[in-house]
Every structure is written in C-alpha cells, then in structure tokens.
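Model: You mentioned two targets. I'll fold them one after the other.
Researcher: Yes, keep them separate.
Model: Target one:
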Amino acid sequence: DLDDSRQSMFLDPSSHGSAGNRVEWNKALLENSVAQAYIRLLEELRTDIETDCVDMYYCAFPKVVDNDRSWEGWLANSFYRQASLAPLFRVSGATIWSNLSSSRSLPEELLLVGEALIADEFLPILDPPLPEHIITGFKNNQINVPMLTPQDLAFGLEQEQDVDCTMDDAPLNCLRKREYVEQILSFFLNDFPADEMEGLPLVIDCRGHLRTLGLTETPLYIAGQSWDLEVFSDHLEWFVDTKLVRNLNLIENEVTGLHYMDNKSFTSELDKYISSKTVNGELKLRRRNTGTLTDTWLQAVFSRLLASNIRNLQFEIRGIPLVPDQNHI
C-alpha cells in the first residue's frame, strides 16, 4: 500500500483507524511475503555460486537496524527468524547446505584444528564462518548460533579399538598433528565427563603413537619418576607422553585407563618384567651403559626404589631378584 507520492510504502506510525490498518497491512507483507521471497531468492542464489564465493553470498543477507519501527527493521527481524529454519548455510560434510540448528560453529578453543576438522567432513561445521552481521541478526532475535560441543566431536572421533598408530597414520586429519590432539584433548578435559571419554583416540604415548582411551591392552601410565622410563625403556608404549602430561596436567582415571605409576605399580610391573626376561630361572646382566638388564639399568632400578618409601614396599620387592652375582641377578 503506497503513500500519496506513489513512490514509498505508507508507514505513518501516527496513523489510526483505516490508515492504521494500511500500516499494519504493509508491515504484515514485509514480515511474511517479502521475507519469504527474500529467503527463496537466497535459495536460488546458492545453487549458482561456487564454493569459494560463499562470502559474497553471505553479503546478500540483510543487515539489522536498531529501529524496530522502521520497515527495514521489520523485514530484517522477520527474515532472520525464518532464515534460521531454512537450509541457507554452507557446512562441511555430505550435506552441503544446512539450517542453523543442524550446523555448528567452531569454538575459539578449536580454531587451530578447524581446517582439519572441516576436511574430515564428519561434522556440519559452518564453512566459512558466518560474518558478524548475520550473527548479530540472529542474536537480535534471541536465536543462538550453535557451537560445536564435546558431545558432537566425540560422536565422530569414537573408535572401537586401540588405534595404536603413528600420527601420520591416524584415522582422521584432525589427529595427525601433536598440536591438534593436544587442543582437542584440552577441549574435552574442560567440559566433558571423564567416564564418557572411553573410545576417544586422544592420548600420545612415549613412542609418539596415538592411543585410544580405555581400549589399550595394558594400562597407560603417567610416569611417577624419570627412572620409570629408564627402567622400562623397551616398553615406552606403557607411558603417556611426558610433554602431554605436563601441558594438560593429566591425572589418572580408571575409566580411561590412565594410571599413575606409583610405588606399588612400579614394583608390580618390575616383578612381571623381570619374570618375563628370566630363562631357566636365571636373569643375565649385560655389560653395557645403555638398554635394559645392564649395570646402568640396575642402578636406575635401585635409584627408583630408594626414591620411594622402601619400608612400605618390603613385601612387594621381597620376591624380586635384584642382587647381582657376577653376570646374574
């Protein structure tokens, strides 16, 4: 409904009666028919654009205005309320275009690994990110842009067995760099129940292999002393990477299979280790400065035991052969 000039809509806010009805009519057209036509135009436009032109496509979305009594405000607010339900947003994965509630925006904590997560295509991540004027349009209408959660990420990362592979051979792009794994694990530790982390391949052992929480054949130990790694130097797969432990302040957790190598754990593993190396009841020492079952190795064993409260370990170490006799112990 046009005003007397026949060039603009009749939008006189002071109008009453039949004139006021004309204003309400124009407002209803803007909020319904025009907003719907705007969305249909964008749906047609998206089919003609290339992947690298999505930023230009987003420029066609309306910018919000502060005045909610203006026709621009009526149109923009109605547009964003309806646009949230339409598949207008470019995401990674099999479904290229998604509605807002099914898409996920990357939280700041995962920006470093964002490109790798997008390349893996197991999550509907907004690619490219929404520009600020679109986010503002949704916020002005109390519509949240969904953020990627640990639960979303866990669904795509979960494994059924211990991957036990080098970083280069990891099953996903987002797991092929140490800094990626560290950032993702930190993301989970900040806001995810530890008892739900089983099956996530997010631990690096001292060989540099990626391991799956809760699914390793043997416990993954957090070294209690530096001598632990020296004594069991031929079983570095038993230990969580020390840098990872330090950077993320990892602690033991029974469900995820992370265990602190305390004194009792050390003596228990030492007993089993020596038994596995015994031949015909004898354990031979080698005259070397490096490696296990050497003079240097035995010194490391005693250094570890002396650093412990050895009085509380008398029962545990009683049956372990630790006294050298020429070439045997």
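Model: Target two:
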Amino acid sequence: DWRKMLLDRWLWAASGLFAGLAALFVALHPQEFFRITAGEDSTATAVKSLAGLAGEYGYHLRNLLNLDPVVLIAASLGVFFLLVRRRWREVGMVAATPMVYIAVLYFFFHSEVRYILMMLPLLAVAGGYALAKVTRWVPTVAGFAVLILALPTLVAARYDRLLTIPDTRQQAVAWIAHNVPTGSKIATWVATFQLTPTRAAIERQRTLDAASLREADRALLDLSSPTYPRPAYDLLRVNLVRERLPRDWLAYLDEQEYEYLVVEFWPWQEDYGLPEFDAPLGARMSLGTARPAASFNQSLPDPNGNFYLPSLTLFPWFSRVEALGPTVTVYQLATEPL
C-alpha cells in the first residue's frame, strides 16, 4: 500500500531529521555549500555521458575494494542471500541506493574517494545480514567474527598511527627550528603551512602587497615582544607576492642574500598556485649555488590523506609509508658555489 507507506510517520521523521541536519550544515557553512553546488567544485555544467557514469561506478567500486573489501564482499553476499530468499524490495533498496547516490554525485557535483562513506552504513547492514546467515554454519561464531573484523581493525589502527606521526610539513618546520638560526633570511613557496615571520618581514610583505597579508599576520603585529612566537624568520613568501617581484625571482633572492628556500611540492601544483621548481633549481644546483639541505618526502599518492591504494599498502611490510603530507624540500642558497 503506497499510500500507507508515504504516510508512515517514521518516513517523515527521518526526512525531517535529514532536512534539519542539511539546513544546519548550510547555515553553518554557506560558503562550502555554494562552492559545492554552484562554485569551483560543481560540475553541473560539464559534459556528462553514460560512459562517464559507468566510469564513476567503476571508480567507487574500485575504491571500496581497495579500502573496505570486507564490507564490499559481505554486502555482496547479503544481496545474494536476499535474492535466494526472493526479498525483492530489500534487494532493490540495497542495489538502487548506491547507484542513485553515485549518479547524483556525477551529474550535479564531483567525486572524491571519501564520499563512499555515505554508502557504508547500508552496505554494512547488508553485510550483517550475510554474516547472520553464514554464522549458522560456523561452529565458533566469536572466532569467525574476530577473523572478519581483523583486517578493518588493523587498517584503522595503522592509519590512526600515521595520523599521530608528524607529517612532512611538521617535520620540515621542526628541522628548520633546530637547524636554522632565528632571524635567518628564508624564502618560501608553500601553500598549506607557514613559518613564523618577523615583524620586519610582515611589514615588507605589506609594502609589496598589502592584500597578501592574512589575519594571522595582522594578529602577530599586535603582539608584544615578550609574547611574539619564536623562532621567527626574515621570511619572503614568494607565492603570495610573486607578481610584485622581478621576473627572475631566484636571482632576486641572491641579490637580497636569502639563505634558504623552502618548497612544498604537490602532485597537482597548479591547484595550489605552486610552480615547477625542478628546472630553475636544477640549473642552480648544477652551478653549485643551491643544494637540498633537507627533504621530507611524500609517501602516499595524495598528500591530502585521500587513500586510493589497497589498504594493505599502509603496512610497512608491503610498502614504505612513513608519514602523511606532501614533499617538502629545504634548499640552501648561496651567491657563490657551495
């Protein structure tokens, strides 16, 4: 009885709860909502195709297989048992919900690996149904449950461990604090972390481009000397004032006697306004006027923490994943060969 189903109070309660939570999100993060729906993250005006949708299904299926194979396999078994028992309504719900969800993402938004999280509760329920059937044939239910939960538990523990290890950016900051004297002249081209600039460095940046100052810089200028954070460096944040510098800004660094250049490298440099440094720095290194003083290397394909590889890759006996974060290199500069 469709009329009875549509008037069910639990359906309306769930719909109201969903609408309320969605409205709260929009109210708290309106800029994020509009960025996703109509801004830079929206793909609603991009060309779509059925082949593209099929590729989207394959993308999420591959991610599920890599990241949560236990849930995917268990949910597939659950759908199989539902088919055997001819429970067509449940089969339709478990199969159609992820298909519709992914189609909405494809046609109106964009996809990221973490978006599969929204599908996991339903898949886990289907997987639980399968395990309820399978455990009837297993003599030791507790042992079987431990076996099933072992892989996701170990993966979660390993990734949590990686999250507690200082990432490459934190390691670079710690290395600089330990090895570079406070007040040293450092040029940086970084997007997702910062060293502390001296007052003079902030004032110089304001002179070059007042619009490039951040609220954190203005807050530093309001601090008294005893409370000013240490160590602080004579920073030139090249990526923030690039348009105000000479075209050959590497030569400018020489002229101004900068001692170090800190470079943050991402796989998608253009997304963060970061340039390719290999050519100019390679030339300087061949002349003996620059050398890497320290390098903290990216271990995962996506330094944001999005993980696309099989989950076993996280473990040291399968690969060398030492820390999260992008590659950060500290170059020592000199006007004369080192």
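Researcher: Noted. Anything on target two?
Model: The two ends are 83 Å apart (CA to CA).
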